[in-house]
Amino acid sequence: MTSSVCKHTFILFILSSFSPLLSAASSTKLIIKPSVCMVKSPGDSCQMTVSVQWHTDETIAACLFQNDIRLHYRENVQNIKTKMAISLEQDMMFTLKNDQQIFATQQIKINTALPTKYRRRLRADWSFF
């Protein structure tokens, strides 16, 4: 019975030591608006101006990346509100990170006005009746 209590106490101790690391990573918010870009047909590139905001509980030095391309760098900040022009040719992942840690991510999707495939008609154009 006491070994079971010791095991549970040890597990709780281990989990509580990881909680500050998890809470620091989850306390950063990255908001990029709009999160969807409309293009006329598949394969077209999308150029748009987005509003980028991030907020952290602690001051950080972080870079905003579009896939592997660094777009924006700020040092010792908690809040950022800026606008920037971006160009997309496919869905992109934006990441707020520094050398040691990824703070937040957000994906920007591309939607097309025309569907990629046309749906097959369920009945023929002609009929005997």
UniProtKB/TrEMBL annotation:
**Would you indicate the residue range of the signal peptide?**
1-24
In terms of InterPro entries, this protein maps to: DUF3019 (IPR021559)
Which Pfam families has this protein been placed in?
DUF3019
**Which UniProt keywords are given for this protein, alphabetically ordered?**
Signal
Q: Does the keyword Signal apply?
A: yes
Name by which UniProt lists this protein: DUF3019 domain-containing protein
Q: Which organism is it from?
A: Colwellia maritima
